[in-house]
Amino acid sequence: VYQVFESVAKKYDVMNDSMTLGIHRVWKDILVHKMNPSPGTVLLDVAGGTGDIAFRFINYVRSVRERQLQQKLKRHQNLSWQEISESYREDKFKSLGDSQVVVCDINKEMLKVGKQKAQHLGYSEGLSWVLGNAEELPFDDDKFDVYTIAFGIRNVTRIDLALEEAYRVLKPGGRFLCLEFSHVSNPLLSRLYDLYSFQVIPVLGEVIAGDWKSYQYLVESIRRFPPQEELKAMIEDAGFLKVDYQNLNLGIVAIHSGFKL
Amino acid sequence: SVVRCQLYSPQRALQVSAVLRRVSDEQKKEPLASSSQQQFDSHPTNHQPEQEPQGPRPSYTGQGGQESEDYESEEQLQHRILTAALEFVPEHGWTAEAIAEGAKTLGLSVAAAGMFHSDGSELILHFVSQCNTKLSELLEQEQKLVQLGKAEKKPTDQFLRDAVEARLRMLIPYIEKWPQAVSILLLPHNIPSSLNLLTSMIDDIWQYAGDQSTDFNWYTRRAVLTGIYNTTELVMMQDSSPDFEETWRFLENRVADAMNMGNAANQVQSTGEAVVQGLMGAAVTIKNLAGLNQRR
């Protein structure tokens, strides 16, 4: 698995766009919207490599924070200019409102690409990059408000261990969110999807990234991955409650959610 | 996988109970009546997770303390979070933010607010349900006093006035954000629940009123009192008089009107239409009110 990602790291984003025809961006947007993070949330994004979820999280929290500040100002209509300028100054330093995101990935190359992207796009505060293994996270217990793993869990050898680690590092009340390819039950769509996956994607892999094998592996790993209900049961086994899933695009992708209660 | 289940579930039960029980320890008094008395539909998700039994789990003296008596269900924890969230409504409105703050006070992560719909529906329904329960308890106590001979039985119009006033007074701490709440309750996906809560509250009041007069039939009574309640609520939201005295005066007049209506022969038919019109007018007014608040 490690070598697969070493070779695909640089072309990862481009391949994602071409494989999913850009829809993966929508899927990730939906994930962050579902999370609906409030300012002050601490997020752990595992297998987050190139930072897609982290950046979206930061944007979301920033806009929520802006709206909060606007509403606060609307209420303080009788302040003197002095007081208003003071409140501007103190709030400017907290444009994220104490929110933080830690991006954890097992692969150095993916993290490197992510850091470069962050610099390029201008993301600096509230962001940290940690090398780590989802089955054995280098974090203490009860640390994070939200744990996300987007298109990463199918690459984990022991999914149950990863789920247990997720449970461990989440605070009580914390949320587990998993975005992953899943099973399409609709037979017509399923056939089209199989056709696309096995015929088109490895070809794209060869053409864009010069790597047929890795993308064939990708497609096969998707087929081997447990379907929605089974993953839900595994998440419950790790101790999460109120476990639920939402199918996107009829099951091509599913978002699983659980709470540590 | 059967073996696996056995291995994991004691672990899970212990892990789970460690968190949930801890939460329930912090606040010993749990208003169970509120969760079991008024039923409302929870936010429909794509696939329902396994339904937890409502109310306390059956207690059995198991070894190892796996299932202990004060094991709290998810439902109860959710109610606890929503109750804690009410404190933050005056500042944040009926929103996911208020729920997040509520969760924080219970020692939970703000992410726990993700268990609820982001428009604050459950918070509002929870509040309404709680108020209705409080009202029932109040009326029950009054009835006991009357039965014990310690109080006089009130005439119907007085009874209705006092009951509606008591119920509406519960809105006072939240009155600024109440128009927002009403507009959310009128959303299509909430109407079944909110209507259900409203009608059971109205029925409750009539039940305790113990009105033996045959002037009204059952449906008319419900419609009339619903109309009185809704219109008074509307007036209250626009009332700026000290202690809402104008609202109570309005209420007095409406109840008096209703009592006089009992003498008219054709009130049964016209009441239905009048109530529908009243509700439509109420909906428009509330939309305007909510719009007013936003523009400000």
- What is the CATH architecture term of chain A? 3-Layer(aba) Sandwich
Largest sheet, spatial ordering of strands of chain A? 3-2-1-4-5-7-6
Q: Helix content range of the residues of chain A, please? A: 40-55%
Structural class of chain B, by secondary structure, is: mainly alpha
Order of helices and strands of chain B: HHHHHHHHHHHH
- State the separation between the terminal residues of chain B, measured CA to CA: 60 Å
CATH class of chain A: Alpha Beta
Q: What do the pLDDT scores of chain A average to?
A: 86
The biggest chain-chain interface is: A-B, 30 and 32 residues
Q: Which percent range describes the beta-strand content of chain B?
A: under 5%
Overall mean pLDDT of chain B stands at 76
Please provide the ordered H/E string of secondary-structure elements of chain A: HHHEHHEHEEHEHHHEE
Can you summarize the main beta sheet of chain B? none
Which percent range describes the beta-strand content of chain A?
15-25%
Low-confidence stretches of chain A: none
**Approximate shape of chain B:** globular
User: Fraction of residues of chain B in helices?
Assistant: 55-70%
SS-based class of chain A? alpha/beta
CATH superfamily of chain A: Vaccinia Virus protein VP39
